[in-house]
Structure prediction request, 94 residues.
Amino acid sequence: MRKIAATAILLLTVAAAPALAAPVDGQVTKIDNAQAKITLKHGPITNLNMDGMTMVFAVADPAALKTVKVGDKVKFEADRVNGRLTVTKIEKAK
Prediction:
């Protein structure tokens, strides 16, 4: 009986786990250092179930905005942080 209960808990935990952020291709169209926001034209963001579009994101680490400029092609990860769509990682595309 314990083994069945443990298996059920494991399955529920795996089913409820959020999708992990995956790198997304994008291009910087605007940077707002004062508000720690960035506007990105991006491809689909699968972990957020979002189609490609241009939109504004909060930035988890405002210092990351100093590593990119308008026009740069980037790879980034985004997730929901405290209810806000937030770039959690960003770097220039290679």
